[in-house]
Design goal:
Blueprint lengths: L1 E6 L6 H16 L4 E6 L18 H12 L2 E7 L7 H9 L9 E8 L6 H13 L3 E2 L4 E4 L3 E2 L2 E2 L2 H30 L4
Parallel strand pairs: 1-2, 1-3, 3-4, 4-5, 4-6
Antiparallel strand pairs: 7-8
Helix pairs in contact: 1-5
């Protein structure tokens, strides 16, 4: 079981802090899982130009191949201008249309206020559905007030992240059971 987290911005610290905490919880609760966090700020990723993801090289190739090899993704994104950041959208553009087929995807979203929760519903979830993701229905929304001195201080956020981690792994188990049942139905 390979779980990849994505800190979907190259600026700011809150999304990365939330994703580091989330991935630490994955490692703690599921020590047998292969876990990796991709912080987009740490990579030099080119803009999508329509090529197949395997035709890129360098950091772009590494990031896209790591995402494609994952069984589950936990996408962390800030809310910029009531939307996802361009760096995250570029990742989606680099991948094939069916990139998330049979992959479970959950989300951790940071924003200045609760007024931006619709960004997930109206922008991020439709993109993930188009790319054939099995989407964990609930997500964790972390506001500015939930951070203090570069730490998440809201106990409810900690609880929701723990729940998101469990929901992601449980959904992954269900997706695997469905895939195995479909494969077993063939006689060859």
């Amino acid at each position: 079981m390979k779980i990849v987290g994505i800190a979907g911005s190259i600026v700011g610290s809150k999304t990365k802090i939330a994703m580091e905490y989330t991935m630490d919880k994955v490692r703690e609760k599921y020590p047998n899982a292969e876990v990796e966090l991709i912080d987009l700020g740490a990579y030099n990723i080119v803009y999508s130009d329509g090529r197949n993801y395997i035709d890129y090289d360098g950091d772009t190739k590494y990031v896209t191949e790591t995402i494609m090899a994952a069984d589950a993704l936990i996408i962390g994104t800030p809310t910029f201008q009531a939307s996802i950041p361009g760096t995250l959208k570029n990742i989606f553009d680099l991948l094939p249309e069916n990139a998330f087929r049979e992959k479970v995807v959950s989300m951790v979203v940071t924003a200045g206020t609760s007024k931006h929760f619709l960004m997930v519903e109206q922008q991020l979830k439709p993109i993930l559905a188009y790319m054939k993701a099995t989407i964990v229905p609930t997500y964790v929304f972390v506001e500015e007030q939930d951070f203090h001195r570069k730490e998440i201080v809201n106990d409810d956020v900690h609880f929701r992240i723990n729940r998101l981690v469990d929901d992601t792994v449980q959904m992954m188990d269900v997706v695997n059971m469905i895939r195995e049942a479909k494969e077993a139905a063939y006689d060859f």
